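Late entry, written up from scratch paper. The run itself happened at the end of the previous shift, but nothing got recorded in the book at the time, so transcribing now.
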Amino acid sequence: METEQNLTAAPNAAGQRLDIWLETQLENLSRSRIQSLIKSGHITVDGHTVKPHQKIQAGMCVRVAPPPPVPVALAAENIPLAVLHEDADIIVINKPAGLVVHPAAGHPSGTLVNALLYHCHDLAGIGGELRPGIVHRLDRDTTGAMVVAKHERALAALVDQFKAGQVQKEYIALVHGIPKQPTGTIESLIGRSSHDRKKMSATPTHGRHAVTHYRVAETFDAMALLHLRIETGRTHQIRVHLAHVGHPVVGDATYGHRRAVAGANRQMLHAARLAFTHPRTGKPVSFQAPIPADFQTLLDRLRP
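Output as recorded:
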């Protein structure tokens, strides 16, 4: 939680902007949040309200008194989570199939956010609201590793890494057909389909650049297990790219073949590994998400 603090500016802070100096002093607050608190009078200098660009003078007394985070209008729900890692800054989970990440039309409850509100007792708040910081998403029926931020500073750091392409995202997928080349790269624009606005397309009129690398790990009768690494994180990227090259994900009802495969009641796509720089320590961290039981059972059945 954001707590009240009283800070005294040291001589070496003299001349710095107040908001920039406070960013180095307050571990869990982003600069935008600090600026908002200054403008709203929740950060004062020597008992007076100031502006974010106020210059620091040695000996200044800065009082930081954020209001309590406002509870969000979402219920905390006791939904089981497979936690791969948790600390004061982040939580990494192995998302199960069927779990929607964020409440939306048609899914007002029973989501990952509802589960995290129940599980995490040390959320510091995002933008003044007591909620987890969703950094990225996985489709409802895609399983695997997801990282969520517990406070603003962690959220900002992780978002920057995702935008800069510094996060390693590795997946496995069971696909129809066997690619002619054992390795390859799929590169295209991805945007809304002009024929169906609920779907994405690799040949849109307007879209965003997307890159997916694949490697054939194992082959079966008319199917293959691929290891994939994505440089970008567009909506439905892997599913769209694989369908675009004629190898849709097995069980994908939106982009795949209508031919049913026994044991594939959803798309067989799993986020197996997630690696990034920890927002507090600055050290590289990597997390492996065990393959879900239904996926493993299907693979075992396909193997001789």
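The mean pLDDT is 91.
(Scratch paper discarded after transcription.)
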